[in-house]
Amino acid sequence: MANGSFEKRIFTTVLWAILPCYSLAIFLLWSIEVSFYLQALVTIFLSAIVGFSCHHFYYDIKDQFISLANLVEALNVGDFSLRGKAEKGQSGHSDLIRQVNKLADSLTTARYDFKESQLLLAKVIKQIKVAIIACDEQGKITMVNPETELLLGLNESKLRHKTLTDVNLGQLTELTSNSIKKLTLGSRTARWHIFKDGFREQAQQHTLYIFSDLDLLLSQQEQEAWKNLVRVLSHEINNSLAPIISLASTLDKLTARSEIELDDKEDIQSGLKIIRDRATSLKHFLAGYRVLTHLPQAKLQSVDIIPVIEQLVSLLNYPVKLSIPAQVILRVDIAQLEQCLINLLKNAHEASGTNNEIDLLIKDRANQVVIYILDKGPGIQNLDNVFVPLFTTKAQGTGIGLSLCKQIIEGHQGQLNLSNRAEGGCQVEINLPR
């Protein structure tokens, strides 16, 4: 009996409790002198009642345990919709059913909370502007966020089949957390702050890498500092230039009406004209820098940039060789993008000379578009300062062209890079997200 099922053990216990009474009743029935047929009829009737009761008792208990087993099995497989029906009143069985139902309610609430947390985490990972990569014990990529897809130029479905070594990041396994290292992550070479930590998923150890672009952060802070400096200088200098221009004009009129010898009068008026012209020229010069501090937010709209580039090249009439696809749809502020391309093509034309051809190429990738502008000039002598406002190598330059271009591209969540080519000349690389 000890090795039988729980239901059978209960049934056997109940049966041993009934059998003595049943046997005693049958013995007394057959001990008295009554009709044989009455004795047989009563015996059959008692036996039927006992047998039916035992059968009903056994299968009722079995059904209850089967129902409980189904409830627990549903919870085990993640189906929290089933509920048991508990009888009114207090009993061990009813309490057990109620507790199982409460457990199902708690698991349902926990599941919804977990899903909401997952959705929130997914939104944060999707919108955060840092690259995130998760790898398993073999170094195979198991998860990336959209920022990483943009940098590497591949969708997550394709990256899942690759290892860190396949994307030139094999050295990450040797780094410690909170490291700062200069490396190439897809299309961007920069100094990265790398956070590294482990986690477990489905009983397997994984490693999480988070990349923060320190160069981009420093560049944004530098741009903001330059904007503030230009804003203050423009305000202070303009406040000084306005009265100088006004006083020069007033003195010029007073000199014209005064009784001064002609030669002296001409000298004074000539000097005042120089002061007025130089002050006016300086005022116009400062007005150009206001563009850096008052660039409006990009108004993005989906456009085909190919006709725009072709029309722009035709209007500029520079010797430009185009290697571009038939169609490229991007969400851009077309006016700002045109201004950026005009500045970059003008720089390439001035660097290359009149007769040297400029190459403009477009590579259309899964989640980004890369525009290359290649010239045949002498290259850039000081690459570290090309995006610094006021810095220029041109005799008549103002030092705002490249700074403005960088600000425009970063306003489109893209990246602008300049580098010298091995064969000579400069390469401009514009990465724009889809």
Provide a descriptive summary of the structure in words.
The mean pLDDT is 78. This protein is 53% helix and 18% strand. The radius of gyration is 43 Å and the shape is elongated. It has 10 helices and 12 strands. The strands form 3 sheets. It has a 5-stranded antiparallel β-sheet with strand order 2-1-5-4-3. Strands 7-9-10-12-11 form a 5-stranded mixed β-sheet. Helix 2 (36-76) runs parallel beside helix 3 (92-127) and helix 8 (305-316) packs across helix 9. The chain has helices spanning 6-31, 36-76, 92-127, 146-152, 156-159, 214-257, 262-293, 305-316, 334-352, 401-411; strands at residues 131-135, 141-144, 179-185, 188-201, 204-213, 301-304, 320-323, 329-332, 358-364, 368-374, 415-420, 426-433. The chain has 4 domains: 6-106, no CATH class; 125-217, Beta-Lactamase (2-Layer Sandwich); 218-293; 301-433, Histidine kinase-like ATPase, C-terminal domain (Heat Shock Protein 90), CATH 3.30.565.10. It is α+β, with helices and mostly antiparallel strands and 434 residues long. Residues 232-434 form the Histidine kinase domain. Keywords: ATP-binding, Kinase, Membrane, Nucleotide-binding, Phosphoprotein, Transferase, Transmembrane, Transmembrane helix, Two-component regulatory system. This is histidine kinase. Residues 117-164 form the PAS domain. The chain crosses the membrane at residues 12-30, 36-58.
The CATH topology of the largest domain corresponds to Heat Shock Protein 90
Strand-pairing-aware structural class: alpha+beta
Beta-strand fraction estimate: 15-25%
Largest sheet: 5 strands, antiparallel
Enumerate the spans where pLDDT stays under 50 for 5 or more consecutive residues.
none
Strand line-up of the largest beta sheet: 2-1-5-4-3
Helix content: 40-55%
CATH architecture of the largest domain: 2-Layer Sandwich
Could you say how many structural domains there are in total? 4
Q: Tell me the radius of gyration.
A: 43 Å
> What does the average pLDDT come to?
78
> How many β strands by DSSP?
12
CATH class of the largest domain: Alpha Beta
EC number: 2.7.13.3
Keywords: ATP-binding, Kinase, Membrane, Nucleotide-binding, Phosphoprotein, Transferase, Transmembrane, Transmembrane helix, Two-component regulatory system
Pfam families: HATPase_c, PAS
Catalytic activity: ATP + protein L-histidine = ADP + protein N-phospho-L-histidine
